Amino acid sequence: MSEADTLLAQGRRRVVIEGVKPQIDHGRFAVKRIVGDRMEIEADIFADGYDEISAWLLYRHENERGWHEIPMQALVNDRWRAVFDLEQLGRYRYTVQAWVDAFGSWRRDLKKRVAAAQDIALQFLIGANLLEDASSNLKSADARRLKASIKALRGEGSDEARLQVALDGDLAALMARTPQKGRITKFDRELAVVVDRERARFSAWYEMFPRSCGKGTFSDAAKYLPYIAEMGFDILYLPPVHPIGKTHRKGSNNRPTAAPDEPGSPWAIGAEDGGHKGVASQLGTQADFRAFVARAKQYNLEIALDIAFQCSPDHPYVKEHPQWFRWRPDNTVQYAENPPKIYQDIYPLDFETADWQALWQELKSVFLFWIGQGVRVFRVDNPHTKPFRFWEWLITEVKQQYPDVLFLAEAFTRPKIMYQLAKLGFSQSYTYFTWRNERWDLIEYFTELTQTEAREFFRPNPWPNTPDILHEYLQTGGRPAFIIRYILAATLGANYGIYGPAFELCEHVPRESGSEEYLDSEKYQTRAWALDRPDSLHPLIARVNRIRRENPALQSDWRLKFHTTGNEQLIAYSKSTETLDNVIVVVVNLDAHNTQAGWLHLTTKDVGIPAHEPLVARDLLTGARYTWHGADHYVALNPHGQPAHVLRIETLA
Amino acid sequence: MSEADTLLAQGRRRVVIEGVKPQIDHGRFAVKRIVGDRMEIEADIFADGYDEISAWLLYRHENERGWHEIPMQALVNDRWRAVFDLEQLGRYRYTVQAWVDAFGSWRRDLKKRVAAAQDIALQFLIGANLLEDASSNLKSADARRLKASIKALRGEGSDEARLQVALDGDLAALMARTPQKGRITKFDRELAVVVDRERARFSAWYEMFPRSCGKGTFSDAAKYLPYIAEMGFDILYLPPVHPIGKTHRKGSNNRPTAAPDEPGSPWAIGAEDGGHKGVASQLGTQADFRAFVARAKQYNLEIALDIAFQCSPDHPYVKEHPQWFRWRPDNTVQYAENPPKIYQDIYPLDFETADWQALWQELKSVFLFWIGQGVRVFRVDNPHTKPFRFWEWLITEVKQQYPDVLFLAEAFTRPKIMYQLAKLGFSQSYTYFTWRNERWDLIEYFTELTQTEAREFFRPNPWPNTPDILHEYLQTGGRPAFIIRYILAATLGANYGIYGPAFELCEHVPRESGSEEYLDSEKYQTRAWALDRPDSLHPLIARVNRIRRENPALQSDWRLKFHTTGNEQLIAYSKSTETLDNVIVVVVNLDAHNTQAGWLHLTTKDVGIPAHEPLVARDLLTGARYTWHGADHYVALNPHGQPAHVLRIETLA
């Protein structure tokens, strides 16, 4: 049928449905929510003329067959809304239907006629005809109900009696649910929302190399669990735990060759004794790993595994599935390159292989294997160097079976690629936070992440450091710089992480000047950390993580709002619950060297306390209590004393 | 196939194409352009990893079978662009395709390897293999060309000679056009652009009741053509010219009954002697109408007809097609109502009729009939009270046959409905301009219309008055108010119109206080106008329309920009050509009673003249010439002298 013929055939679908939100790329991708969230759907819905409209939100969990239908409510300017509760993990679908409600329109006009004292005798007959038309589409009980109303409207009763029948609310509701034939406009797509567990929105990550713990076994690492749990983290993330290749193994500080006793990089995955499903024997056995996971659980710590789909030349795949690698005309496998740089210790998997479907299935089985070992959180290394469709397929498949699994995308790349990975399903994403050190830059970036459509799919997980990134700010700013960056990460991001113990011990020396690599990086060697150093940030971290748990405002990013301070070195922002029953205001001195002062501006709308009433700002870091009047409040922060306020707003009472 | 299986099957489509612009509602509707325009298409295009991408814009006119393919160019941040010329009226389609360019990636890396003085012998063999893979997909001439290159690359030539072969530009271009099998990502929709003639973007309309001309015939009206042409209008729009109903005919000033000699409203269409395809005998015959159209053409005036799909009780349709009306249980036809108001002189057509397809076809034939009489411009009365799909179908069908036909939507209704009508095909639209009389309000509204996505489909046609709307501002502001509103309409809108002679004669008395209806409105009676009154705005209008024709900046709305004046009563804006070779700055005093002064701020970017050079602002209304230095210029306007400047920016030279 031509487009014109379609329009002609559908000529009785008078309602238009547009602008359905939330919606990513016209429904190509799902939005994200947390179990227990209320899902608010809005749409522009209108028709020609002045008739009433009946609009319905349809939704169903992927495991349900039938749709739930709930009526939408008109707001202003032809915008409609409906809300439903997300009660289960997994994927829900939703869409919108609407039609002109002929009976509702008649009923509305009848009331106007009555108010204008017009003769309405004829109207009862018109109404009865509308009911009669509808009754053929109805089930017997409803049809019988209509028949009674029709009889009454056509009967000899008084106007008052018939009016009561005509305006009956249940009848109106029944008729609003009963579209005339051929009149339904369906929004042309089913949209989707992926519902995760709370940890997807609110989590504190701690990255640690277990091989640096004691003698470097899982049971040594288990002894560090109380230390990590005391700091209040939720997720303990381990770099790859697999056997490490020997061929072209890198030495300490990324030297091209390793000494015989050097352990190599955990990201050079695979050796004779196993690949992505193996555990390096230095760390222990699979049973040791499972025991470690179980022990961590006792400390409320989930283990996150690093999945890095790349192979050392010694990986079993090279022999077992040579077709998954790119072979060069000299019958060698193509190693990783970024010309002119070469990385001979790494063989990339060739996703262009004709055998890609088997490769995808195998890589999926890697996730399923570790899920079988008790892991539910994965940090995925460099996902942007593997095809987008691969990740979309993999994450969809895994989450269909295990909707509680979370994926963190470790991609530090161009903005649209970062977003694409989030759209296609990654639960959380690393960010540019590490390189956003100025006030304007932080405001611009976090406004984009939390106040635009991006928040529907991209959950930021800011890290002040990683084993790959020691920013110059930390290299030069001393302990205050670590505190500043830590408080920013942990309060700007409901999700955040640090790489420790390097972080809490303020490890700050780069491999060489101008580099963001650590000197003596744990990527290539083990380190012994003096965890009990008196200048450790351990107590501060413990306090901030407790503040995060006690204050729901800090457990989501959607209500982040920046405030003026009149000083480019002082950043201020608040997070609050929707009802404003929990409001946290954070002020951070971005200058790691000098005291900075300014005027924090807060309105009634920000804090929920009328402008004429004093408010109490309680510093949750120090316990100090400030009584504030008006909207502008003097703040001075000395980085060597207290570089930041984390304030809870309270009433005086 | 499940979604997951589709992803698996399409696993080699590594490129993502998103954010294609222009695009309305995911391609549901076409954007609008003018013949001769350059069509600029942009898209986000990216792939995993670091490979080169080959991206192509495909476009074709609806009358062409094959696609034109042009390469897209990468801008920044993964944004790509291509441009093509819109050379014909009608509808073009466009879409985007892209794939990873394996050979291009290899070629780019080869250059890096050469720069780093690496051994490249193996690379030639790899390149040759890429060419060999491609040659199977190619036509013989291209395949032969590849064979020669393959031979050279695998041959015994020097590195330099083989490098020359490898880096050959034509070879790269051929390979960029040759995707590997299964690798093409196609944007999932074909988008459309409707190309109109220039008059869609740039037109000056004059509305007139021919029955008020002399004795009220077309040949009387023809005598007014020079008068209208002198003012420089393009389009002469006539209210409905059809026979007028007698039943319930309205008298002067909308009285419920007409005296025997009263002519009735032209919008009460249809009588015994004809309906929507008829001409009221008082005006003349069909031949007289055609002669009038032809005569107008000699004055460069196009006749626009008013198409109002509603019937008087005497319309032939009522007898011939009773099924197109809604019948009440008492066997009378349902007249128009907006309870409790009733309009017994009007029978609405019942678009809910089961016979809607025949109704639609008949209504389409009304347009085709008048097109047959030489009309190419239609002003459609109250389109928002007829189904949207009807208009979409009708306009698509008519324009497919007559792509030069223009439709003006006369809908004064809610914002989303105004936009919907424009989206579905109306060439121009009436606006809220009549009610936007304050500076902030004009700026907000025209910024929305000209600087957001709305401009892709909505072409505003602002009118300071219509036979239905005499705004209070005109009722109370005297002649200065008419000048102010006229200059705003004619310079804010590349399209605009007035209802005359009421407008140029400053007719300003409402039917009653608080009403926007004219006293003694021509809708219900004829009027004799004293066209030669010395206070007529005729000369001003003639001058402004000449200014519009001589200055391309005023012939489009897309480059409208507002400027500060420091005075809420002084509005200032500019329009310019893209190259800034024509820049018009308009300053209007919105206060019809008092002189207002302020400082007009113009930057180099606005006027294209470096800040340190003086510029000349030539007032095209008065001929005055101002030499201005710097960015801020004092402006004072006396509404009783000159309420506005229309300035052309020139260099001193």
Folded structure, characterized:
Two copies of one chain form a homodimer. In chain A, helix 12 links the parallel strand 18 and strand 19 (406-410). In chain A, 45% of the residues are buried. Helix content of chain A is 29%, strand content 23%. Chain A has three domains: 1-196, Immunoglobulins (Immunoglobulin-like); 203-548, Alpha-Beta Barrel (TIM Barrel), CATH 3.20.20.80; 561-650, Immunoglobulin-like, CATH 2.60.40.1180. In chain A, helix 2 (102-115) packs antiparallel against helix 3 (121-135). Chain A starts with a helix and ends with a strand. In chain A, the strands form seven sheets. A seven-stranded parallel beta sheet of chain A has the order 20-19-18-13-12-11-21. The longest helix of chain A has 21 residues, at 472-492. By secondary structure, chain A is α+β, with helices and mostly antiparallel strands. Chains A and B meet through helix 1, strand 3, helix 2, helix 3 and helix 11 of A and helix 1, strand 3, helix 2, helix 3 and helix 11 of B.
Q: Please tell me the overall pLDDT of chain A.
A: 97
Helical stretch tally of chain A: 17
CATH class of the largest domain in chain A: Alpha Beta
Largest interface between protein chains, with number of residues from each side: A-B, 61 and 61 residues
Indicate the overall shape of chain A. Answer: globular
Q: Order of strands across the biggest sheet of chain A?
A: 20-19-18-13-12-11-21
CATH topology of the largest domain in chain A: TIM Barrel
Q: How many domain modules of chain A?
A: 3
Task: Give the tally of β-strands of chain A.
Answer: 29
